[in-house]
Amino acid sequence: MLIIAFTFAEPLWLLSLLLLPALMYLYRKEARKRHVTLQVSRLQAMKGIKTWVVYARNWIQSLRWIALCLIMVAMARPQQLWHEETIEADAIDIMMVLDVSASMLTRDFRPDRLSVAKEMAISFVSRRPYDRLGLVYFSGGAFTQCPLTNDRRLIQAFINNVQVGRLPDGTAIGMGLATAVHHLDNSESKSKIVLLVTDGENNAGELGPLTAASIARSLGVRVYAIGIGTEGIVQSPVRQNRDGSYQFAPRQMSFNTRMLEEIATMTLGKFYRARTSADLEDIYSEIESLEKTKVVNTTVRRTSEMFFWFLNAAFCLLILEMLLRWGPLRVITT
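Below the sequence we write its predicted structure tokens.
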């Protein structure tokens, strides 16, 4: 990363700019004494006497003041600061696997389980600037929404757009896990993990969750399994309307977490239970502390002197002022 800044090696010289107004005032005061006053009987006698030369003489002195200002700035030694920062990061490849079955719309979280899971996932992504992240969502089948990428804004946009109803209904945990592991197969990263967020038991898919976990273990992929949702009577979807919306009714919910615990144990990961939004936030924070990205920063600074540009500009203005004053704007006295 390259950062360019403008600075001064001797900034105290800039205080000399405060003398300019006083010098300009004294000069104009003395100039009035040197000017000859011509008295005429009527103002009409002066009509048409002003030409461009008269106007030019009024501002030609400003060239000298600008040149003096540039010289004072040059004395402060302006410099261009080049700040080069090299970042060497031992990044982690993370596939996020999100359950989008209809039960994720259950309203034991506000507004529902899926919305809270998405919000926490987006926040987690924002805190992983050097890692590659990807997104897989599943219900009755699995779909890769985004492969591994370093573009955090892109993955956050994909997470935000995840919706229920785009895949067949059901909970194919094995298919979601296997799809994520497939993307980590060719990864050269030393650390490869899967964040699996679900609220149900596997009831669909051609590949079982434990089989997918076995494949993950063979490839060195750790699975952090998060079971989201409460048990008991909650407002949950019972039927989908023709327009794609859902009808809700109180339902008795239960959650057998034994399978998720086995997946985490097999892959040397960890299982978490999230019953509230605060629980889910703490879980992501703990995973973040467990999976730290190793970053080494190397900073190189160098400067380029810029004062000669100001001196050159001042010299050119003085030459221009001299040529005009002794050329077309010259005053001839007798």
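The chain is about 40% helix and 30% strand.
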